[in-house]
Amino acid sequence: MTQLYLGLNLSTKRTRKRDFLDEMRRVVPWPSLISVYFGMVILFEKHRTA
């Protein structure tokens, strides 16, 4: 078994990917965006079946 397999991420190196994802989490209001998206999906489904 490897440390990665066990979920032991011991790396503290800051990568560009990690920096980008951290900034996206700070900047984008994900809960609001997801709720709007699912609200639109529900409206579309209701309209499509009507």
Describe what this molecule looks like in 3D:
With 50 residues, this protein is mainly α. It has one domain. The chain has 2 helices and no strands. It starts with 15 loop residues before the first helix and ends with a helix.
Give the SSE map.
Elements: H1 16-27, H2 30-49
Count of separate DSSP helical elements: 2
What number of structural domains do the residues give?
Answer: 1
Q: Helix and strand succession?
A: HH
Question: Strand content of the residues, in percent?
Answer: under 5%
Overall mean pLDDT stands at: 85
Q: Give the strand tally.
A: 0
Structural class: mainly alpha
Low-confidence stretches: none
User: What fraction, in percent, of the residue positions are helical?
Assistant: 55-70%
Compute the gyration radius: what is it? 19 Å
Largest sheet: none
Characterize the overall form.
elongated
List keywords for this structure.
50 residues
Would you kindly provide a brief summary of this structure?
This protein is mainly α. The chain has helices spanning 16-27, 30-49.
